[in-house]
Every structure is written in structure tokens, then in C-alpha cells.
Amino acid sequence: MISKGNFLLLEPSEFKGWLDKQTITRSIDKLQVHHTAAPNYSTRQIVNGVAKQDVWKCLEGMRAYHLSQGWSGTGQNITVLEDGRIAISLDRNLNKTPAGIKGANTGALCIEIIGNFDQGGDTMTVAQKQAVVHLYACLALKLNIPVDTSHIVYHAWYTASGAWLGDYKKGQSRKTCPGTKFFGDGNTRSAAERGFIPAIKVKLKRIKEGNGNPMTSEEKKQIEELKATVESQSKWINAQKAKENMECPKWAESAYEYYKDYLSDKTGSYDFWRQLVISYRKENKVKIIL
Question: b/e for 174-188, b at 16 or more Cβ within 10 A?
Fold first, then answer.
């Protein structure tokens, strides 16, 4: 959790804990869904999910643009970055009405998702997709908002004046936002009901069951290191097991030939073959290098 300038930056795993501590003093019954269009993955110079552009420059750049439009501060309450991190607008906190959908902001929270998710635009990273679903599930739980397309709404379902269309209607909708390929499916109401809404419901259920907090990048690294350690130990254990019942090694062949009439077969543990060679060497006074 890092606070700098006009934003608070959270890891996905920190969001619910932070949200639980917030006191909401205004009535909120809608969660808006937006993509930024610009900035996007190209302007952020994203390669393999990692952006070259400084995150604070991106966030403050959006705020500066919004101020140039005559707004009182950052338009959105919350921003989700491509790497899954979540930025809270300190100048547009949860208790302040956003500037997300002109004419339809009262009682709403505005969430902007970095990227251009129109056809031919960006493909959302896995980290961002997981964070988006987690965020909406946490907000729905905190604010007691039903997870459906009447309460989790796309910008595309409104006219330029903020009138409710209830679906994306080309030529009537103010924007295509959150994108004609949002979540790989689209910006229509049926697309939301097929993919986005069910994903939030599944996540909400997991949160209620106590298994909904995503891992931090550090936790993921620790898991990978643990897996590597377990694999290494497993290989060592298998190697030791192999030594417990091994075919006569080359360095013990002379000893085996000498004692074979007294042996039941040509297998034994590493220690057995070593001891056999030592006995053979002592009895025959032959120097054998193991």
C-alpha cells in the first residue's frame, strides 16, 4: 500500500482489507464499468504485462486531463491497472460522486480499467482480469449491491445525456465503453450476463466462504520457490530410493564376480555394494578406486 500525490496504490490482496475499514456516508447502488481507452496498453508501453511508463505519471496524467476539462478532480473513484494493482483517487474518494457517466453519477461509483478493450484494441492481462472481478465482488459485498446488470452497469448502456438505454445500442449509446471486446466477449448486456456477472458471483461466493483473496506478487514468488524446493527434495528422495536397490555398479563388478556364488542376485543398496568392495579389497589386497 503506497500513498503518493493524489492516489493510494494497493495490491489486489490489500483491497478488501482497506475497503472493510472505509466508512461510506453516501448511498451507493450502482457500480459503473469503464475502460480508459487512453491511457491504454500502448501508451503505457506494456510488454508481457509490465508497463515501462511510471504508474504515478499515468495516474496524475489522467487527473491533469480531467482538471483541464473543468472537473474538480480525478473523474473516477477507482482505477485498475494492467498488473492488477488498484489505485484509489484521494481527491475523489468513495464518498464523492464521480464524473463517470454524465447525468447518471448520483448513487454510483466509477471504476476505470486501464486499457482499450474495443475490437482490435488491447487484450486484458490475466492479473488485471482477476483484480477487476475481485474488486467488483468486494464492492458488491461491502455496499450490499446485487450482482446483476441493473446494478453493475456499462457506460455503453447510457445515452450522451445519461438516459438509461439498458443495453449497447450503436448510434444511441454515448460510448462503446468498456469496449466491444470487454472481457473477450463484448459490451452488450447479454455479454455481461454471460461472462462478467457470473465471474463476479463466483468470486463473491469464494469471498464469503473465506477463500477469495488473491495472492500478492511476493506471495506468488514464495509459492514458486516452495514448489522448486519440494521438487528438488523429491528428486533427492527418489535418488536415495534408487540407491536402496540398485544393480551392481561398474566399480563393484570385480567384487561381485568374486562373491557371486554367495549372493542371491545382482541387486543391493549402495552401502551393500560399497561394503562388498571394501571386503574384496581387504581379502585380495587390491586397490580399487570408487
Answer: bbbbbbbbbbebbbb
Residue 152's Cβ-side half-sphere holds a number of Cα atoms within 13 Å equal to 31
Q: How far apart are CA 33 and CA 40, in angstroms?
A: 16
Grid coordinates representing 244 are 536402496
CA dihedral 51, 90, 72, 85 (to 10 degrees): 20
Could you read off the pLDDT of 68-83 as tens digits, one per residue?
A: 999 999 999 999 999 9
Separation CA 130–CA 125 (nearest Å)? 9
Amino acid at 175: K
SS3 267: strand
Radius of gyration of the chain (CA): 31
φ and ψ at residue 35, rounded to 5 degrees: -110, 150
> Are 157 and 196 spatial neighbours (Cβ–Cβ below 8 Å)?
no
Grid cell in block for residue 35? 475502460
Residues 223-259: tens digit of each pLDDT: 566 556 667 766 766 677 667 788 899 998 888 888 8
